[in-house]
Amino acid sequence: MPHDPRGDCRVRVPLESLTSAQRTQVEGEELAVTPEPAVRACSVAVEPPTLSALRANAERLPDAPSEQHRLAVTSRDLAVLREVPNRTRQGIDPNDGR
After folding, report:
1. How far apart are CA 90 and CA 87, in angstroms?
2. Residues 15-34: tens digit of each pLDDT
3. In which region does residue 91 sit, left (phi positive, over 0), alpha (psi from -120 to 50) or beta (all else)?
């Protein structure tokens, strides 16, 4: 499982792996930068599945960000799609008939 550092980390590069002598840049110009992440998290509410609503999770889930946050979904994460049935069915009484 790959590590996902959440803060400062140290990387060791063995000298024998370097092809030539390395020079470290120790000075530079400080610039103010406003980050614009390529991905951002947002919460969405997806209606629980019903016998009368025959749309698959892969169709229902991408519509939620569009309808609730005016965001276009350009790809689908398989791990998220696998979690949708568990999340939408939490707290639903199986005898309720919904």
Report:
1. 5
2. 888 777 777 777 888 889 99
3. left
Per-residue pLDDT reduced to its tens digit, 30-52: 889 998 888 778 888 877 777 88
| The two structure tokens encoding residue 25 | 């840049």
Burial class (CB in 10 A: 0-12, 13-18, 19+), 84: middle
Question: CA 76 to CA 59: how far, in whole Å?
Answer: 10
CA gap 55, 49 in Å, rounded: 8
Helical packing angle, 78-89 and 57-69, nearest 10°: 90
Q: What gap in Å lies between CA 93 and CA 18, rounded to an integer?
A: 62
Structure tokens at 48: 């629980």
Distance CA 80, CA 83 (A): 5
The closest alpha carbon to 47, from 89, 81, 91, 95, belongs to: 89
